[in-house]
Amino acid sequence: MFKSTFRSLAVRNYRLWAAGAIVSNVGTWMQRTAQDWLVLTTLTNNNATAVGIVMALQFGPQFFLLPVNGFAADYFDRRKLLIVTQASMGLLALGLGLLTVLGAVKLWHVYIFALIFGCVTAFDTPARQTFVSELVTEKDISNAIALNSTSFNAARMIGPAVAGVMISVIGTGWVFLINAASFAAVLVSLWTIKKSELHLREKVKFTRSGLADGFRYIAGRPDLKTILFMFFLIGTFGLNFPIFISTMAVSVFHSGAHEFGLLTTIMAVGSVVGALLSASRDKPRVSLIFVGAAVFGAGFILAAAMPTYLLFGAALAVIGISAQTFTTTALGAVQLLTEPHMRGRVLAILFAISWGGTIVGAPFVGRIADMFGARAALGVGAASGLLAAAVGLYYLFKYRNMKIRFEDGKISVTLDTIEHENQS
Q1: Across the strands, what pairs with 421?
Q2: SS3 81
Q3: Integer Rg of the chain from CA
C-alpha cells in the first residue's frame, strides 16, 4: 500500500516538483496565517468582514479572468508560465513584507496586494494543476494530484504553527519576507526539470472561442456539471476557513496567535490524512465525492456545537479529512474525465466557480460572524456541505447506470445511452 500511495515519487521530474512545492507551500501558509492575523488584530478591531474582503479580492480574479487564464494554461508552455507566476508571487510577498516591517502597512495596502496576488494566482492555478499531467503518465495522474494535495496540506499543518510562533517572536512582516524567500525553491525545481522527460500534449491552436469551447464541453457532460455545481456550493460558502477559525479562536475561545495557528494545523492534519487516503485509491469515484460533501456538512455541525477549544479542534480534523476527500477526488475525476487539450479550460472554470464564488461567500460569511457570532457562521459551512451532498445524491440516483472504465490509459464513460471516450 505504501508503494502504491507514493508511486508518483518514482518519477524524477515529479520528485523535483514536489520538493520545491512543499517548501513554497509552507511559506505560503505562513503568509496566509500572518495576513489574517494582521488584518484581524492589528489593522482592524477583530473585524471578520475585513478578512472576508481580503479573501474575496484574493480569489475573485479567478472568476473575472476566466476568459483568458484557462486558455493560457492550454496554449502556453506550462513550465514557463509557472516560472513567471511563481516569481511574481514571490515579489508580491516581498513588497508586503517590507511595508509591514517598516510599519507603513495599511488595510488598503493589504487589499491591493490581495487583488494583485489573486490576478497572478488566477493564471498559476490551472497551469499548476494541469502541469501534473506532464510530469507523470496518464495512469498516475490521480495519484500525483492526491500527493500534491498531501504536500499542500502538510504545509498547511506546518506553516500556520510556525507562523503562530514567528508572529509572536519577530512579527508578521518577517513572516511575509520568509514566504518571499521560499519561492526560490519551486523556481529552482522548475529550472532543473528535464524537458525531454515531460509528457507534453499536442499544442492547442489559438482560437477566440477557447473559453466557449470549455463551456460547451462541460454542457454536454452531466458528470462534470454535477461536480462543478458541488464545488460551487462548498467553495463559495464552506471553504472560508480563515474566517471560521480566526473568529472562533478570537471571539469564542479568546486565543492568541499561537493557539490560532494551532487550530489551522489541527485541521491540516485531517487534510493530510484525507489526501493520503485519496492517494492510496486506484481511481476517483463520484460516490466518494458525495460522501466527502456529506461528512463535510456534518463536521461543521459538530464544530458549531463544541464547547471547548480542544473539542473544536477535533471537529476541525473531521472537516479537514472530508474537505480533502471531496476536493482531491473531484479534481482527480475532472482531470481524468477531460481530454488533455481541454483540461486547462475545464479546470479554470472549476476554480472560477469555486474560488470566484468567494466574492460573495467570504464577505457574507464574515458578515454573519459579525452580526450573529462565529458559531452561526459555521452553520453556513454546514449548509454548503449538506446541499452539495444532496446534489451528488440526486446525480447518483439519476445516473445510477453510469459506468466509468480505466484501462491502459483509456477512459470510457457511459451515461445511460451516451458514451464518451477519451483516448490518451
Answers
A1: 412
A2: helix
A3: 20
| Partners of 413 in the β-ladder | 404, 420
The DSSP line for 2-55 is: HHHHTGGGGSHHHHHHHHHHHHHHHHHHHHHHHHHHIIIIIISSS-HHHHHHHH
CA atoms of 176 and 182, how far apart (whole Å): 10
- Angstrom CA distances, 46 to 39, 162, 168, 177, stand at 8, 22, 18, 24
Coil, helix or strand at residue 284: coil
What angle (nearest 5°) sits at the alpha carbon of residue 209, between those of residues 205 and 215?
A: 110
Q: Which residues are registered as beta bridge partners of 411? A: 406, 422
Distance CA 274, CA 146 (A): 9
User: Look-up: residue for cell 487539450?
Assistant: 341
For the stretch 76-102, pLDDT in tens is 888 999 999 999 999 999 999 999 999
pLDDT at 13: 92
Report the pLDDT value the prediction gives residue 409, as an integer from 0 to 100.
Answer: 45
How far does Cα 143 stand from its chain's mean position? 16
Which pLDDT belongs to residue 377? 94
Contacts of 133 (CB under 8 A, 6+ apart): 141, 199, 201, 335, 340, 343
User: Which tens digits make up the pLDDT trace of 1-24?
Assistant: 556 678 888 889 999 999 998 999
415 forms beta bridges with: 418
Whether residue 243 contacts residue 362, with contact meaning beta carbons closer than 8 Å, is answered with yes
Q: In terms of Cα–Cα distance, which of 387, 234, 254 is closest to 312? A: 254
Largest CA distance in the chain: 65
Phi then psi for 136, rounded to 5 degrees?
Answer: -130, 170
- The predicted pLDDT at position 413 comes to 56
SS3 272: helix
Q: 233: how many CB neighbours lie within 10 A of its CB?
A: 24
Residue closest to 350 by CA, chosen among 242, 225, 238: 225
- Name the stretches of the chain with pLDDT < 70: 1-4, 67, 156, 200-211, 282-284, 355-356, 358, 399-424
pLDDT at 107: 94
Phi first, then psi, for residue 308 (nearest 5°) are -125, 160
Cα–Cα distance measured from residue 344 to residue 364, given in angstroms and rounded to the nearest whole number:
30
Nearest CA to 48 among 309, 250, 234?
250
State phi, psi for 412 to the nearest 5 degrees: -125, 125
